[in-house]
Task: inverse folding
């Protein structure tokens, strides 16, 4: 068994890696995979040293490792629980994690999401109607807003469109001016020196979102005995844990804020990337339009998976921290190592996806690719809680845009850039509405 230091690393200096990483992160990982193979290590300033795996077998070994060997819960360098609140599912591990997931997932699965499709369509239609005609605008912000409102609608079942918009606006401000602030991730500047200091501003946004969301949660808890009270929040409040306790209001709030954090940007970004590819590939768009006109959605689903494959918004799907020495691909990783499934590289394997650089929904159309081989939503105990809901929002959102607007790309080069925690197209993907349909 070889040691961590023997794992292949990309040639060149730390500086050259960092420059390539910043210039086009996805390309960097794809190139390193071609240079180094199925397992490699790379150090990036600000991210640290990671071990990446890029084959289905090694990915399976990572996601199926016992939790006492690889943990997937609170990974210190990633945690935003000091702003989102402590105790959300994604911060837990082991039996309590599975128990909590059992309470959350039934409110977000396909069956629970389906009744919201008309709401999702209305949200998208209203936003699209506000897009300017003939003037370039960044699509990513618009699609993130649609995703955010859709998620708030599900989490606060029964809220009116105005209430949904108010909560979504409060969360958006917190996300832009709080979570995305450099102060959120640099403990050295987390000193509140008043309302004009960076951390003071973050804390102000955090107080506002906590206040707005706590109020809504309280309203729902006050009506919990009414038979019509259902949805995620009453469901979590009624849950009886194996140790006989119930979830506190603080944990319910943390769960809601964490679900929005985990879900809305990724869902909005994925729709943006997919629309960008559709605009750059007119025959694919034409086939999709035709299918939608005929009332089908199998091709739409394949288009979405192809968007998630060709343009992943996240660098890795499953991040794990080694707790006890772990062997993968012939190397032994010591405790403390961070290991991840590198989705940008896995997605570009030509043995899985022939002609991988093309945007070709036929990679997925009529095919069943098991999550154990490739999954943009991860796999194993920490697999994405919001997968079904995300698919439903993306299907409805994309179909509505395609039906309602003729868009045109308004920038020449499209490449991924890191914006806070995820990857967006540079300039936010500038498009113009040519015609309303
Ligand atoms: C296109 C959209 C989305 C993508 C690509 C995505 C992807 C992922 C991935 C890769 C993971 C990590 C899986 C692992 O570690 O094995 C994850 C976890 C998670 N996602 Fe998503 N996600 C999306 C949307 C959503 C939405 C809409 C929600 C909530 C409403 C959500 C909630 C979560 C949560 C709570 C976790 C942590 C699960 C756990 O630790 O057990 N995600 N997601």
Result:
């Amino acid at each position: 068994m070889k040691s961590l230091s023997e794992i292949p690393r990309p040639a060149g200096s730390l500086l050259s890696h960092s420059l390539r990483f910043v210039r086009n992160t996805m390309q960097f990982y794809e190139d390193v995979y071609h240079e180094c193979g199925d397992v490699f290590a790379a150090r990036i300033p600000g991210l640290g040293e990671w071990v990446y795996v890029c084959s289905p077998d090694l990915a399976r070994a990572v996601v199926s490792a016992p939790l006492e060997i690889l943990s997937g819960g609170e990974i210190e360098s990633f945690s935003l629980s000091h702003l989102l609140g402590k105790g959300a599912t994604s911060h837990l591990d082991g039996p309590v994690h599975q128990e909590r997931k059992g309470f959350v997932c039934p409110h977000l699965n396909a069956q629970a999401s389906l009744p919201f499709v008309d709401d999702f369509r209305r949200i998208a239609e209203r936003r699209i109607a506000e897009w300017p005609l003939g003037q370039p605008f960044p699509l990513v912000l618009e699609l993130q807003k649609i995703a955010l409102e859709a998620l708030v609608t599900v989490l606060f079942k029964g809220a009116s469109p105005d209430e949904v918009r108010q909560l979504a606006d409060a969360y958006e401000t917190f996300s832009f001016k709080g979570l995305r602030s450099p102060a959120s991730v640099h403990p050295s500047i987390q000193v509140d020196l008043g309302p004009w200091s960076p951390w003071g501003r973050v804390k102000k946004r955090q107080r506002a979102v906590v206040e707005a969301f706590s109020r809504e949660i309280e309203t729902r808890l006050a009506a919990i005995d009414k038979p019509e009270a259902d949805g995620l929040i009453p469901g979590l409040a009624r849950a009886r844990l194996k140790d006989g306790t119930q979830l506190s209001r603080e944990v319910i709030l943390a769960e809601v804020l964490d679900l929005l954090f985990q879900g809305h940007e990724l869902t909005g970004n994925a729709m943006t990337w997919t629309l960008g590819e559709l605009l750059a590939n007119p025959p694919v768009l034409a086939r999709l339009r035709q299918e939608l006109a005929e009332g089908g959605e199998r091709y739409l689903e394949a288009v979405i998976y192809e968007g998630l494959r060709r343009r992943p918004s996240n660098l890795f799907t499953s991040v794990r921290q080694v707790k006890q020495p772990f062997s993968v691909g012939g190397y032994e990783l010591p405790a403390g190592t961070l290991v991840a499934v590198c989705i940008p590289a896995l997605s570009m394997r030509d043995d899985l996806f022939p002609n991988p650089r093309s945007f070709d929904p036929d990679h997925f159309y009529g095919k069943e690719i098991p999550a154990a081989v490739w999954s943009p939503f991860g796999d194993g105990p920490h697999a994405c809680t919001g997968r079904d809901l995300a698919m439903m929002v993306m299907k409805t959102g994309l179909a509505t845009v395609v039906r309602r607007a003729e868009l045109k790309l308004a920038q020449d080069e499209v490449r991924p850039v890191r914006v806070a925690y995820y990857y967006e197209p540079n300039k936010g993907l500038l498009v113009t509405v040519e015609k309303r349909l």
Notes: The CA atoms of residues 107 and 232 lie 6 Å apart. The two ends are 61 Å apart (CA to CA). The chain has a mean pLDDT of 92.
